[in-house]
Amino acid sequence: MTSNITSITSELLLRNVRRPADTGLVDIRIADGRILSIGRQQPAGPDVTSIDGGGGLLLPGLVDSHCHVDKTFWGGPWVAHTAGPSVAERIADERERRFKVGYPSVERTTALLKQMSLCGTTHIRTHTDVDPDVGLRGIETVQAAAGSLGGIIDVQQVAFPQQGLVSRPGTASLLKDAVKMGAKAIGGVDPAGLDRDPLGQLDAIFDIADSTGCEVDIHLHDPGELGVWQIWRIIERTRSLGMEGKVSIGHAFCWAAMSPEIESSLLDALAKAGITFTTAAVFSRPVLPVRTFNNRGITLGCGNDGVRDLWSPYGNGDMLERAMFLAYRSDLRKDEDIEVALNCATYNGAKILRLEDYGMDEGCKADLVVVPARNVAEAVVMHPARSLVFKNGKVVAGAGAGN
Amino acid sequence: MTSNITSITSELLLRNVRRPADTGLVDIRIADGRILSIGRQQPAGPDVTSIDGGGGLLLPGLVDSHCHVDKTFWGGPWVAHTAGPSVAERIADERERRFKVGYPSVERTTALLKQMSLCGTTHIRTHTDVDPDVGLRGIETVQAAAGSLGGIIDVQQVAFPQQGLVSRPGTASLLKDAVKMGAKAIGGVDPAGLDRDPLGQLDAIFDIADSTGCEVDIHLHDPGELGVWQIWRIIERTRSLGMEGKVSIGHAFCWAAMSPEIESSLLDALAKAGITFTTAAVFSRPVLPVRTFNNRGITLGCGNDGVRDLWSPYGNGDMLERAMFLAYRSDLRKDEDIEVALNCATYNGAKILRLEDYGMDEGCKADLVVVPARNVAEAVVMHPARSLVFKNGKVVAGAGAGN
C-alpha cells in the first residue's frame, strides 16, 4: 500500500467510528473535503462509497508542530551517529558531514512525509536549515517533496538558521528570501548560547518578521535563568511589534529551572503576548508542563523534532507515539490527563499552525484518523497502527487507500 | 496466530540471519533445544525443517528482569487510573481496588505472558504481591498462568511485600511459604520510606534469605541520601551473609542524587558485593547510568515494571521497546552505546536471573529472536514486530508458530 490519494467518488460515508465524546458509534458523511454531517446510521445513498471504521476511535488529523523533515535519512542506508554530546558539537558535526551523507534529499524527505501520513499526521510545521552553505536548497527540497505527494500532508516551513544568525553573516537575507519563497515563519536558535548575542539575534529575527509579515518560531535550548531571561526578551519584542499570536518557542528546556512565583508571572505575560510553545519530550530533556499550560491558557504543541538524522538515530514520525512520550514523561496516568497530552498533537498544534476549520464537527475539513482503540488513553498508550487516515476527505492510508 | 509451541521435527535449520558481530548471513542448526552449529549455508539434511530468517538480525531471547505480571489487566476491559501521585497513594489505591477489578487473574496474567513471548521475551523475573489479604494467591496465579503456556516463556517469581513487611504483620511468614512454593527470591520495598523501619525490613528479608537460601531483590524508590544510605545497608548484609551474586536492587532512583566521589566508592563496594540492578526507565524517574555500570562491571538489567495495572495504564510488555526507552532516556545515540543498552535486556538480564547457557554460540540454549533490522541500533530504535521467536529450540512466534 502506498499513500497516494484515491479518487473514488465525491461523497464518502465513514461508518462505525466513535469520537472521544460520543456515547456510541456514529457515521460521518464526507464530501468536498469536509464533514457534511454526523449521526447514527446515516443513509449511504447512491454513488456514495461506504467505508467501515470498525468501531474505531476517530481523531482529528495529527499535527506535528516541530520537526525537521529536510534532514532525515528515512528510507535510506543506516547512518551511525558520530557527534559529541553538546548542541554545539552536534551543529559542528552536522556542518561537517551533511553534504557527504546526501543532504538535502527530496527522496528522503518524501519518504518521511509518507511515513508521517501513514501514521495519521495531516499537517506539519518543519524547521528547514538555511545558511550560506546550503542556501535555500533545503526549502526547495521540502517544497518539492511535499509537492510530489498530491496533498496527503500539508507542510508549513520555518526558515531555520540552525548554525546561528549573527555568527553566520549572510543568513538573514536568506531568511527573507525563504519567506518570499513561501516559508510561513522564520526561526532562531539559542540567541545567547549559540550566537552569543541574544539581542542581536532576536532583533534581527523580529525585524525580518516585522518587515515581511511572517511568523516567528524560535528554538530555545539555553538552560536555566539564561533561557528564562530570553523568553522575557521574546515577550517584549512580540508585544512591541503587535505580533501577538504569531510567535512560538520550541523546547524551552529552561522551564525546568523556574520557581513557582516566576513561572506564574511568566505565564501571565506569555498569555498576554499570545506566545505558543512546542515540546517534543526528547531524551531526558525537560518537558514543558502540559497541565499547567492547559490550565493557564498557553497553547502547547508537540512535535517529533528530528527523525533519524545527524542529531539522533531515533524517531519514526508517529505523532501518536510522540504524544505517548509526552504523556509518559509528564507522568500523566489518568484518562483525562492523557487526553490533555493528546490535544497537544491535535487541537493545540492546529492553533499553532493557525489551521482553519480543524476538528471533527460538521463543516470541519475532513482530515481524520481512525485508531483501533477503545478510548483516547488507550490510543495514546498503545499508539497502534492506524486503521484509516483521511486527508481533504480522501482516504490516504489504511483500507481503501490507493495502490 | 497464537503462541503455542509447534512440534515439527527434532532438528531445525534457521537460515539467513545475522548475529550483531557477523559480517554476513549465517544459518543456525538447532536440535534438542540448543544451538548445534552456526555457519554459512549449512546443509539442511533430511527430516530437517528449514526456516527462512529473511536476512534479519538474530538476538538472544529477551530477558525482563523486573515486571509485575500478577497485577496486569492485559487483554481485559480498560481500567481508568484513579490513584494519587505518590507511591504511598498508589499502594493505598491498589489495596482498595485490586479485588474489585479481579486481581489476581490467571486469564490476565496468561494474556500478558503470551504478549511478552510474541515480543521475543523468553525469560522474566516477576515481583508477585504477597500480603495477608491476598496471601499466596498471586504466586499460585502466576504459576498457573506460566504452567498453562507449555514453556514458551520461563518465569521466575520474587515474593514481593508490596504493602510493606514490618508494617504488615504476617507477611514475613508468607514470604517463607512462597519460597517453599518455588519463588526464587524474596523482595522488599522502601525499607525507610514505606515501612519506616529500614533495618527492621532489611534484617527480616536477609534473615529469610539466609535461612531458606533464596535470593533477594529489593524495590528502592526512596530518593536522595535516604536511598543511598539504604544501598550501603544492603551491601553490608549481602557481604556479612556471604550472599555475593544473589542480591539485586530495582529502580534505585536515589542514584540521581549522588556526587561523583560517592558514586565511585559505592560502585566499588557494589562490585565486591556482586549486587546487580534493574532499571525500567519509567516516566521521568531517574534512569541508572548504563555506561557507568557497564564500565565498572556492575550488572544492570532492564524490565517493563508494571504493564497496564492500577499503578499505570502504560506498557505493552515489549522488552525491545523498553530497551529503546532506556537508551533514549540515557541519551545514547551512538550504535555501540545503544548496544550496551540492549545488553541490559539480554545478557545482563540473563546474569541477574542466573540463566545457564544463555547466548547465541554453539551449545547455547536456542532461545532466540529474529528482528527485521539492519543492526542493533536500528532494532532498538524501531523495535519492529518480531519476525521469529524461538524458545527451547521451537518456534513460538512468527512464521511457523503453531495455530
Outline of the structure:
Chain A contains twelve helices and 15 strands. Chain A has 403 residues and is an alpha/beta fold.
State the helical fraction of chain A.
25-40%
Structural class of chain A: alpha/beta
- Strand adjacency order, main sheet of chain A: 5-6-7-8-9-10-11-12
Radius of gyration of chain A: 21 Å
List the helices and strands and how they pair.
Two copies of one chain form a homodimer.
Chain A: E1 11-18, E2 26-31, E3 34-39, E4 48-60, E5 62-67, H1 87-97, H2 106-118, E6 121-129, H3 137-147, E7 154-160, H4 171-181, E8 185-189, H5 198-212, E9 215-220, H6 224-240, E10 247-251, H7 260-273, E11 276-279, H8 290-295, E12 300-302, H9 319-329, H10 335-344, H11 347-352, E13 368-371, H12 376-382, E14 388-391, E15 394-398
Parallel strand pairs in A: 1-4, 5-6, 6-7, 7-8, 8-9, 9-10, 10-11, 11-12
Antiparallel strand pairs in A: 1-2, 2-3, 4-13, 13-14, 14-15
